[in-house]
Each structure stands twice: as C-alpha cells, then as structure tokens.
Design goal:
13 strands; Rossmann fold; 6-stranded parallel sheet
C-alpha cells in the first residue's frame, strides 16, 4: 500500500538560490521532510543544487513590482497567477513564508478552504512596523491563517502586537535549526591572552549594524583582527570607515560565501561578532558559529540571549565602546573562552533542522486535519 504524502505549497518571491538566511532555511527545512510533497514558487534564475529540496519548483511569471504606485496592480496580477496554481495543485496546506509580503497576500486571497500556516521571518515584521501598506498586508495574511509560526517568542510577540492581539491563540513558536551533522570543529589550541581573530558574517545594512564592530576595533586595548564576510548597501561605507580609523591592516572584507565555504572557514577564528541593532528574527548564524565551537560576542537583543543559551558575551546594541570592552575582556580571559566554546557546542545541539522540520510537519498535519486522509 502506498503512503500518501502531505502535499504542501510554499514559496519565496525571489530568485531561487541560497542568497539569504531565509532561502537557506527553506532549503534545509523541506529537504529534511521527505515525507512531504513540496511545491515551491520562486523566480528565475534557479540554483539547481539548492532546488533539490523541493519536489517541484515553479517560477512565477508576473513581473515583480513590490513598491510604488503600481503595487496594487502587481498584486492583482500575482494573485491571479497564484490562484491558478492553487487550483491546479490543490495542496493539503499552504506555508506562507513572510507574513504580509505579496506572495503571502496572494495565498491568503486564493486559498479558499485550504489551511494556511503563515511563517514570520523578520524582514516582513520590520516592514510592517515601518509601512502602513505592509502593516495592512500582514494583518490580512494573519487573519486568513490557521496558524502563525515564529522562531522565537520575541518575534511572535511583535507580530501579535501588530495584529492587535486578535490572533494570540494562533501562534506557535518553532525554533529554527541547521544541519548539525555537517558542522565540524577544528581542534586548535586557544591562545593564553592577546589579540583575537574575529569574524562577522551577514548582510551589510543598517539593521545588521556592522559599523559597530568596525568602530569598536578602534577603541580596543588589544589589536584584534576582524574579517567581515558579506554583501550589502553599506559595504563601501564600512570599508571607507575602516580606512578613516586607520584599521586597514586589521579589518578584512570578503564577499558573501556559500554556506559550505563559510562553515569551512568558521573554525579558524577565535570568536564570532554579532552586531544586529534592531529586530533579529532568530539569527541562524549564531547557531552556525556555536556549532563550530566559536564563542559569540553579541548585541543583547530580545530573544538572542535565550537562543545562545547564555553561552556568549553580551554588549549594548549599537555601542562600539561596549563592544570594545567585551572583546578585550574575552581576549584576556583564556579560561572563559575555553568554557564558552564548550557551552556553545552544547547549546547548538538544541537547534537541529530535523527537529524544526518535525515540529512544522506535526503542526501542518494538525492543521490539515480531514483534508489529509
């Protein structure tokens, strides 16, 4: 007898490639759920190795116009296209990635009796907090959803507040995870004291606030070295600021790395620096760093301390002097670095993608109910 697979429709309205934390997450998430049949809606170009996590990948053809006076017409066109796909695929459930973004709104308007699980990622919440249009879209998707998933209680509370606490009973917190079995720890001795080899990886924009790390290095008592890995709108400004501060020899900028390359590099550093100043949905890179045995020096944002399990060194978000003091403290204390490295490895084991996938699948089965028989 053939077992029926749960039929899921999901998607992210961008090029189908591992270009961001969310795109990497969905690849891992659905790749770890072989008992599901997943159709993913994305856009060309498609990275074929990345796409192997999905049973079917369909490129959306509606011209993308996410901002400006033409947005409503774009949303109507996208909704017609998505509606045709929903009718054709007839999924048991829809996973609406990014609560309130255009594709999720199109799902909300075309799902009919098909249950929707909305999944918050962070940028959608930040957009809703800044834009009335995005706020209304988020509320529309939340109202149409059977459940709303967030990776932390802090993010769930932000969405709950944005929706006027109308859907509190629909929230489910499912922590994100990584493929822990692929992480490797390099066994190298920890120096007694002195300058640290630091790494920061992520998008280079205002919210990630990499400038805090650049300016902190000019205030440290020890000549720590920093490698910044990533791309973004502020890269040129960050490089110029490093030159102005006389840090050209101590700060190295490198482009975005595919995850397997980043993971290969992580064990070569002494500590990871996390600088986000505003909202962080989860911070998968924190778990990635910990899984490779790195202590984390982090901006003390809601939810981050819980994710790290106390295995990190906090500083005041956006404050270079606070970060500089934390780095020097870690540099002088070899025993603490050793203890934090062990705690990091232990804490990372809480965040296996297999656990994330199992919890989302179980939630989907409950929501799909009688549709999945």
């Amino acid at each position: 007898m053939t077992t029926k697979h749960l039929n899921i429709l999901t998607g992210i309205n961008r090029a189908s490639a591992p270009s961001s934390g969310s795109m990497i997450l969905v690849h891992d998430l659905y790749g770890a759920m072989p008992e599901l049949h997943t159709t993913f809606l994305g856009r060309a170009p498609v990275d074929q190795p990345w796409a192997t996590s999905f049973d079917q990948l369909i490129n959306l053809s509606t011209t993308k116009r996410p901002h400006g006076p033409d947005f409503n017409r774009y949303l109507d066109e996208l909704t017609r296209e998505v509606g045709g796909l929903v009718e054709e695929i007839q999924p048991d459930a829809i996973h609406a990635q990014y609560v309130g973004f255009a594709l999720s709104v199109a799902f909300a308007r075309t799902a009919g009796t098909i249950p929707i699980i909305a999944i918050a990622h962070g940028p959608d919440v930040m957009a809703a907090e800044c834009s009335p249009q995005e706020h209304e879209a988020l509320k529309e998707v939340a109202a149409a959803s059977a459940m709303i998933v967030a990776p932390t209680f802090a993010l769930a509370d932000r969405v709950d507040r944005l929706t006027g606490r109308q859907f509190t009973d629909r929230f489910s917190v499912i922590p994100w995870g990584i493929a822990l079995s692929d992480a490797r720890v390099q066994d190298h001795p920890i120096a007694d004291t002195g300058a640290l080899s630091l790494v920061h990886a992520g998008r280079l924009d205002e919210n990630k606030c990499t400038i805090t790390a650049v300016e902190a290095l000019a205030l440290t008592d020890q000549p720590h070295r920093l490698t910044v890995i990533g791309q973004g709108t502020l890269r040129e400004h960050l490089e110029q600021r490093a030159i102005e501060l006389g840090l050209r020899a101590r700060i190295r900028f490198e482009p975005f790395l595919p995850r397997h390359e980043l993971w290969r590099r992580l064990p070569n550093f002494d500590a990871f620096v996390f600088t986000t100043r505003g909202l962080e949905a989860f911070g998968l890179v924190l778990v990635e760093a910990q899984a490779h045995g790195l202590p984390v020096v982090y901006s003390d944002l809601p939810g981050v301390r819980h994710i790290l399990g106390g295995a990190g060194v906090p500083y005041t978000p956006g404050d270079p002097r606070s970060l500089a003091a934390a780095l020097d403290e870690l540099g002088w204390d070899c025993r603490r670095r050793t203890a934090l490295a062990k705690q990091a490895l232990h804490n990372a084991r809480r965040y296996d993608i297999a656990t994330t996938s199992r919890q989302l699948r179980e939630l989907t089965l409950r929501v799909a109910g009688e549709r999945f028989v």
